[in-house]
Amino acid sequence: MDVKMTRPKTQPDEQVLEAAYRLIHADGPEALTFERLARACGLSGATLVQRFKSKAQLKQRTLLYAWDGLDRKTEELAGSAPKTPAGAIQLLVTLSKGYGDIESYAEGLLVLREDLRDPVLRARGAAWKAVLSKALAGCFADVPDMPGDIGLLMASHWQGSLLWWSFDPDRELTAYVEHSLKRFVAAISARNP
């Protein structure tokens, strides 16, 4: 008896977008095609075209889905991190765990390129910057004489440390980031005795 595997007729958008995001992150944004996504998620290409209309819309929806996940993760970490400089470091080190090894980080930069090209996605990045900066600033609220933009300064240092690590990834990413952030906090604290 020959049993044929049938494709599922429906699947929630979140499941499809997760499969699309895995494709983008594994093989770059250009790897996201309706054909490859159909193979990855099990829906037909026609169903995907009907649902997402164009490759550009599919890519945008996929990256908005990724931003939604980062927003949730940031909110969760900001809510649970101690409101201390060490809590700010903990928050950023935990966010850094999502970057993976150097190959994964490099692929992530291709995804970032797509965010920078699309005004809707760029706006999501700007909104995340504001939320993250505010959460980090809250960790310094009880530290006297901190600059008013300490949250943005720390977020900027964190992003810079990720980039500098990528040129010389001789140690584990989160260890590098934690060391760099501790030095940043020590420097800013020494400036404000």
TrEMBL record:
Residues 10-70 form the HTH tetR-type domain. Transmembrane segments: none annotated. Keywords: DNA-binding, Transcription, Transcription regulation. Residues 33-52 bind DNA. It holds the Pfam family TetR_N. The keyword Flavoprotein does not apply. The keyword Cytoplasm does not apply. InterPro entries: Homeodomain-like_sf, HTH-type_TetR-like_transc_reg, HTH_TetR. GO terms for molecular function: DNA-binding transcription factor activity; transcription cis-regulatory region binding. Coiled coil: none annotated. It comes from the Bacteria. This is Transcriptional regulator, repressor protein MphR(A). The lineage of its organism: Bacteria, Pseudomonadati, Pseudomonadota, Alphaproteobacteria, Hyphomicrobiales.
